[in-house]
Amino acid sequence: MASKLPEQGLPKEEVLEQLRALSGQDVHWREHRAFGLVYHHSDAHTELVQEAHNLFLSTNGLNPMAFKSLHRMEHDVVRIAAALLHGTDATVGTMSSGGSESILLAMLAYRQHARSHRKRIRHPEVVLPESAHAAFYKAGEYFDIKMVSVPLQQDYRADVDAMAARINRNTIALVGSAPCYPYGVMDPITEIAALGLKHGLPVHVDACLGGFLLPFVERLTPEERIAEIPPFDFRVPGVTSISADLHKYGYAAKGASVILYSDMAYLRHQFSLSTDWCGGIYASPTLAGTRPGGAIAAAWAALHSMGEAGYVANARAAMETAKAYINGINAITELEVLGRPPVTVVAYGGREPELGAYAVGDQLEARGWHVDRLQRPESLHMILNPGHLQVADIYLAELREAVDYVKAHPDSAFEGSAPMYGLIAKAPLRRLVKKQVLGIIEQMHCASDETGNISLSAESGEGGESAEASAIAPLPPLVLKAMRAKARLNRLFRRA
Ligand SMILES: *Cc1c(COP(=O)(O)O)cnc(C)c1O
After folding, report:
1. How confident is the model over 186-209, as pLDDT tens digits?
2. What is the β-pairing status of strands 239-245 and 257-261?
3. Closest-lying ligand 1 atom to the alpha carbon of residue 257
4. Domains and CATH numbers, the chain
5. Whose C-alpha lies nearest to ligand 1, atom 4?
6. pTM summary value
7. How big is the CA angle at 266 (ends 263 and 267), to the nearest 5 degrees?
């Protein structure tokens, strides 16, 4: 299929047929083979969300006077989120296109706030735990804010003393996650917020994952939960903003998140206003110009259709699912779950470093699972939804098989994509990796039709080379040889 505008438009059925064929190349999320990327509640719910989206497909939230409906719906969604996260009458916010935009907006607002209130700051800095989402580092690049990344405690939660030590005259905000994406653990928000109060600094809580899950987990009985949820929202004095994704555990359509602030004094700095433009006075509350109304309506529909009872029941099922996976993984003595994740995000790796998690990941992929990898430490990552309970037994059985295979074939750590991921994680190669990955991204966006053939993940059986893997393909032979030799030496000495 060439990337070309057809001279004559194609018939509807043919267009749809081509789309269906394209979607056949995608990860098999409907069969619960992916853990992350897709948050599916039920087919009936998806249908409703689709219908709501379609109803407002052509509308534009850019002009709230023209689309009073969207303005009203956004207001409702923000108020609902504020109530769930224990805001006050002073709590305000907007919707955005996703977690990254919510985070970008908060970082922008704090930079602008500092510019107008703390004129001596030349080079703004934000202090954040190393587990904070990549979107914060993106915000740092976009808005020229230095992101001061602080190592974690042993249990993968933010180290608040270490954060305190990095605060200086240029610091404009602190960050914590509830929970963080990589390990799914809750940062000690109460302590981070107290630190913020002590230094007069705003504190952002990234609840992109937890914002529409934790409030409902809190309503479960202790037996239904995995662990008690420590306070993380506006109940905690010192918390000044929270990002929460509707398109994750809110089960809205993609393109929906909220960013909330404790006070208009912060939100106002997120707004952009051009009064001199020849096109007229142009005000925009978020990064976008045109704001797709479908995403707003779909989020409104999701909240109203699920209702509190629906979300609580979902949280109950999600906890049951997470328990099944956590207990199942821990029952495999060669593996261990990292930290103590209290909800649905779980990372695990080998209890001993000799059991390479990436090699286990390759084996899982060979069995048809879509695998996510973390790089510190070498581990696999999953985000669970209730649907995953249906495949828990088979996943855990195949995980057992994968571990046995890797134990029986120690060299599997040097085959498939495992060594590539291992290499990428090595700090000294970081700059080289960055250069190579940039090259791949450029290639993916180049004019050649070949761009369509690059596969982003090492999908099972398809023989597709992963972007990350091919990104460092030019260097392996020597390095691989050295790694292999080193691992063999390690094994020899351990045996001796
Ligand atoms: C998903 C996520 C984000 C980014 O959200 P997007 O919607 O992917 O832009 C940020 N923080 C956390 C904790 C997340 O899970």
Report:
1. 999 999 999 999 999 999 999 999
2. antiparallel
3. 7
4. 52-303 (3.40.640.10)
5. 99
6. 0.91
7. 85
